[in-house]
Automatic annotation (TrEMBL):
<feature type="domain" description="Carbohydrate kinase FGGY N-terminal">
    <location>
        <begin position="1"/>
        <end position="242"/>
    </location>
</feature>
<keyword id="KW-0418">Kinase</keyword>
<dbReference type="GO" id="GO:0005975">
    <property type="term" value="P:carbohydrate metabolic process"/>
</dbReference>
<feature type="region of interest" description="Disordered">
    <location>
        <begin position="479"/>
        <end position="502"/>
    </location>
</feature>
<feature type="domain" description="Carbohydrate kinase FGGY C-terminal">
    <location>
        <begin position="285"/>
        <end position="431"/>
    </location>
</feature>
<dbReference type="InterPro" id="IPR000577">
    <property type="entry name" value="Carb_kinase_FGGY"/>
</dbReference>
<dbReference type="Pfam" id="PF02782">
    <property type="entry name" value="FGGY_C"/>
</dbReference>
<dbReference type="Pfam" id="PF00370">
    <property type="entry name" value="FGGY_N"/>
</dbReference>
<dbReference type="InterPro" id="IPR018484">
    <property type="entry name" value="FGGY_N"/>
</dbReference>
<protein>
    <submittedName>
        <fullName>Carbohydrate kinase</fullName>
    </submittedName>
</protein>
<keyword id="KW-0808">Transferase</keyword>
<dbReference type="InterPro" id="IPR050406">
    <property type="entry name" value="FGGY_Carb_Kinase"/>
</dbReference>
<dbReference type="InterPro" id="IPR043129">
    <property type="entry name" value="ATPase_NBD"/>
</dbReference>
<dbReference type="InterPro" id="IPR018485">
    <property type="entry name" value="FGGY_C"/>
</dbReference>
<comment type="similarity">
    <text>Belongs to the FGGY kinase family.</text>
</comment>
<dbReference type="GO" id="GO:0016301">
    <property type="term" value="F:kinase activity"/>
</dbReference>
């Protein structure tokens, strides 16, 4: 038995796997990111700790204790913990946009590009650096009290084992020298964050380390002490491992809350446009070139709420429209943080166009789903896809949407073995570190292969070209300086407001 724990943004899950990779049980609990207004989103670390204990106990009930435990989960955000791995304040979610102005400042100053030229990673608003900068101005006492600027899975590892470490995949962005797998002091200096070097956990050497479940971890989970526990890689590389991405050039599309497109590579390119991530894999000399767009099922959620429909209706609605959505078009950039792949623009915003009184609810859903499929092609090609491509994530549960992605790509689409692809990848990583023998081909065999349809090829080739043209036009509008209103020269000047004095 191998246990995989996946700490998602809105769900905590534990999946128990047999030696052959069969998923024997899954348990889940919702976690609750809290929207505080003004783009601020935070999470309660202790709520997640409690959920981990509950899902592990439920998933393992009635089974022998697992031989190893692997942990993966959401990356980024800022989880400030004390020496006992307890939160010194609510965690700032990776969805939070208070880092936007700091990122824009680094883009304008050249620091953003300077970081990319060192480690091939493009900072985005929800990552450690902008959030540290935001708290330095907004809550400096929390940074002063913190012992660790942690990632979620690393905080859970510390609560289960006492080990204060991180893995190279999480640390890759923003501060790591991804060749040496250690922090780059020059990056910290470029961003003006040298004083927070003390908060960064030591990075585990490749391929990682396992730590024994301690008494506190045993009390939380109900499992016996001593079980080896491994945290890392985070969810993007873990899903790639769980989906069987093993050959250089192979890729994965994760249609989740966000759209993550990634390709396995054996080279680092710091000369490209500063966009996307280059994430260390557990093995030295391998990286994932990732384009994690902020579009995804969250975009579909938005349109469904707007038209009063449910997820159960999606395939039926798509069947009522046709390729091209009867002229309706969408740009899927509805996240308040803008877009981070395959371009970076904190001002990116979504749009619907081509609408008329003949446009139906089904056409709107079709247009939005097509826009996410176009974004997937845009991202996976930018990541360097040259081999096999797989798909996973909640959106892949829609057979119609998955077929659409295959049609837009005009490539066979391998459906990753379900359920819990991320937890499966975490279990594989734990077995590698713990020295447990297994058959990678069996653990990651595809459930199905979706062949692209020739009859939609022309429509989607034309639609993709239109999508790229619309993105280019929209970017020019997003970033155009607003015109100043003309003032009548003879009109009285407005009075200046009186400043309050203390």
């Amino acid at each position: 038995m191998i246990l995989g724990i996946d700490l998602g943004t809105s769900m905590v899950k534990a999946a128990l796997f047999s030696a052959e990779g069969d998923c024997l049980s899954v348990a889940s609990r919702r976690s609750s990111p809290r929207a505080l207004g003004g783009g601020r989103i935070e999470q309660d670390f202790e709520e997640i700790v409690t959920a981990v204990g509950a899902v592990v106990a439920e998933a393992c009930a009635g089974h022998p204790a697992p031989q190893a435990i692997g942990i993966t989960g959401q990356s980024d955000g800022l989880w400030l913990l004390d020496e006992e791995a307890r939160g010194v304040r609510p965690a700032v979610s990776w969805l939070d946009d208070r880092g936007n102005p700091y990122l824009q400042g680094w883009i304008d100053s050249g620091a953003f590009a300077g970081v990319f030229r060192r480690n091939a990673n493009a900072i985005f608003p929800g990552s450690h650096a902008p959030l540290m900068a935001a708290l330095r101005d907004g809550d400096p006492d929390a940074l002063a009290r913190a012992h660790t600027a942690s990632y979620l899975k690393d905080g859970i590892l510390q609560r289960l084992t006492g080990a204060r470490v991180t893995d190279a995949s999480d640390a890759s962005l923003p501060f790591l020298d991804i060749r040496r797998r250690d922090y780059d002091d020059e990056i910290l200096a470029l961003l003006g964050l040298e004083e927070y070097r003390r908060l960064l956990s030591p990075v585990m050497p490749a391929p990682g380390q396992a730590f024994a479940l301690n008494a506190a971890g045993a009390a939380l989970t109900g499992l016996p002490e001593g079980i080896p526990v491994h945290a890392g890689p985070f969810d993007l590389p873990a899903c790639a491992m769980g989906a069987g991405v093993r050959a250089v050039g192979d890729g994965l599309i994760v249609i989740g809350t966000t759209l993550a497109c990634e390709v396995l590579t054996d080279r680092i390119d710091t000369t490209a446009d500063p966009v996307g991530m280059t994430l260390c894999m557990p093995q030295d000399g391998l990286w994932l070139r990732a384009m994690p767009a902020t579009v995804g099922t969250a975009t579909l959620d938005w349109i469904l709420e707007m038209i009063g429909a449910t997820h159960a209706e999606v395939d039926g609605l798509l069947a009522q429209s046709r390729a091209g959505a009867n002229g309706a078009n969408a740009l899927p950039f509805f996240s308040a943080t803008g877009e981070r792949a395959p371009f970076v623009d904190v001002r990116a915003r979504g749009q619907l166009s081509g609408l008329s009184t003949a446009t139906t609810r089904a056409d709107l859903v079709m247009a939005v789903c097509e826009s996410v499929a176009y974004a997937a092609r845009h991202c996976i090609e930018a990541a360097g896809l040259s081999g096999r491509v797989s798909v996973c994530g909640g959106g892949s549960n829609s057979a119609t949407w998955s077929q659409m992605v295959a049609d837009v790509l005009q490539r066979p689409l391998h459906v990753a073995r379900r359920p819990e692809v991320g937890a499966r990848g975490a279990a594989i990583a734990a077995m590698d570190v713990a020295g447990i023998a297994y058959d990678p081909a069996v653990w990651t065999q595809s459930e199905a292969v979706i062949e692209p349809r020739r009859e939609t090829a022309a429509a989607y080739a034309s639609g993709f070209d239109r999508y790229l043209d619309t993105v280019a036009s929209a970017r020019a509008l997003w970033n155009r300086a607003p015109a100043r209103p003309q003032r009548n020269a003879h009109a009285p000047r407005p009075q200046q407001p009186v400043r309050a004095t203390s």
